[in-house]
Task: structure prediction
Amino acid sequence: MSSRCVLVLVVAAACVGLSSAAFGQDTVTIQGSGSGAFETPPVATGGVGVAVCTLTRSSLQIDCTARVHNIVDLTAAHIHVGGPGVAGPTVIDIPGIPLRSSDDFVLSWTWREADLTGTLGRLRPAQGINKMLDLFEACSSGNCYLNFHTTTNAGGEIRINLCPVSETRAANPFFSINVCAPSRP
Result:
């Protein structure tokens, strides 16, 4: 076997090893910031927010913290499936939101698989969401968002698109797909 063939095999093996290590990670962090400008269609509002969520495959758990500012009469909040600019369906309600709040707030919560199939959740077979791992695939790929609703903007006041922390395709070690940073031809 020529030295060139050996070199090609060594490089290929290294790439497979790196790829396997990346796909073997247990967690992905997704984050975002948003306002009414990200709603579909956009709404004029002073409300803004930021969020960070950690998806943990081994426990099928999503831990999130959101900071919301300038909200007036909060009526609901959930995670939706849909990429940037797409209005998607609600999947799981955010528990413990300060209903009727008209101020700034910080909220942390955890979603588990039972929340998806329980009273907080809605399976979405038409969008491929049949279990928690399906939601992980969507969110770790940048295909989900948090939405905070108010009386004035019942369809959504603040939309926070959630994307893998790094804006590279490698930022998603679960599936290597990132609609927040699509591959370039």
Remarks:
- Residues 3-23 form the longest helix (21 residues).
- The two ends are 35 Å apart (CA to CA).
